[in-house]
Amino acid sequence: DLQICQHRAPTCCTKKMEESYQAAVRRERTQSIQALNFELKYMIVGHITAFQEAFESLLRFAENRTSSLFETAYRPMAKEAAEPVKELFTDISLYILGAETTVESAVLRFFDSLFPLVYSRLINPGITDLSEDYTECLRLTRQDINPFGRYSKNMVTELSKSLWASRMLSQALSLGIEVINTTEHAALTKECSRALVKMQYCPHCQGLTLIRPCVGYCLNVMRGCLASVSELDAQWREYISTLEYLTNEMAASHDLEIALTGIQNSINEAILHAQLNGPQLSATVDKVCGQPKQQEGNLPSDNIVPVKEVTETQTFVMAHTSLNNKRREFISYMKRSRTFYASIAERLCDGDLVMRDSSTCWNGEDVV
PANTHER family in the record, alphabetically (predicted)? Predict the structure, then answer.
C-alpha cells in the first residue's frame, strides 16, 4: 500500500512511515531555507538597528543645536519655544519611520506655533495679553502674511529631499525582512513533498541509509519545489538596485546629516527675516487680530532661560561616520546577494544532502 516509495524489491517501509517522511521533509525544507536566509536577514536587521540608532543620535544632536539657538540668541522666548521644537523633531522621526505624515505639515506646524512667540516676544515685546484667541489668530495669520519669507518653504524643500530617501530606505529594509520571512514559510505542494520523500527517504525503504541523491536529480527536484520562490529573482535584483539608489541619494547632495543640522540655521534666518519686517507685520496683524494690551518696561525674568552649553559635536561626527560606514558595508553585502533567489536550489543541493565524491548515488529509482 505504499504511495511514494513503490519498488519491485522487498521493502521495510509502511504507509505510516511514508507520512512521517513527508512531515520530515517539510520540516527540513523550512529549516534549510531558514539557514540560508539567516545571514541575509541578520545583515538587514543589523542595518535597520544601526540606521535607527545613528539617525536618533543625529536627530538629538540637531534638536539640541536648535534648542541652544533659542537659549543663546532668543532667550525671551526659549522656554515657550521648547515644546514646538520638540514636536518638530518628533514629527521628523515619525516621518522617517513611515508614519502617515509629511515633512511640509511638520515644518509649517512648527512655524505656525513659532510666529505668536516671535511676534509677542521679539517684534512687540511689550504685549501682555497673549490670550488663546489672540494666539490662534496669530497662528492662522502666519499662513497669509508669510512672516518668515522664503525660509520656511526652503526648509520644507531641503528636508523633503533628504528625509524622503531616509524614509524610503527605512521602509525598503522592512520590506526585505517581510519577503525573507514569507519565503521561509512558503507552503510545499503535495507533489513537491512526495518528490522530496522519493529523493531523500525512499532509499531507506530498501535499507540504503547511507546512499545520497545524485546532484542533477537533486537540482531537478529542488527547482521544481522552489519554482515560485525563484520567480522572485527579477524583483529581488530590482530591490537591490533600489537600495543602492537610495543609499547613494542619502550620501549625495540630499545628505540627511547636513539637512538635519541645517534646521538651526533655517530657523534663525526665518526669525531674523520676521524681525526685519516687524513694522509691516505689526500693521497687518493689528488689522486682522486687533491690538493687544501693551505693558511698559521689561519682561518678567521668569521668561529668561539659563544658557546650556551643547557639546555634542563629537557625537555628531561619530554618528555621521558610523552611518556612512554602515551604508557602504551594507550595500556591498546586499550586492553580493543579487542572485540569492536565482541560486536557491543550487545552494540547497550543496553540502551534505547530495553525493559529490562518490561514483554511486540515488536517481529516484535505483542506485546508479
Answer: GLYPICAN, GLYPICAN-5
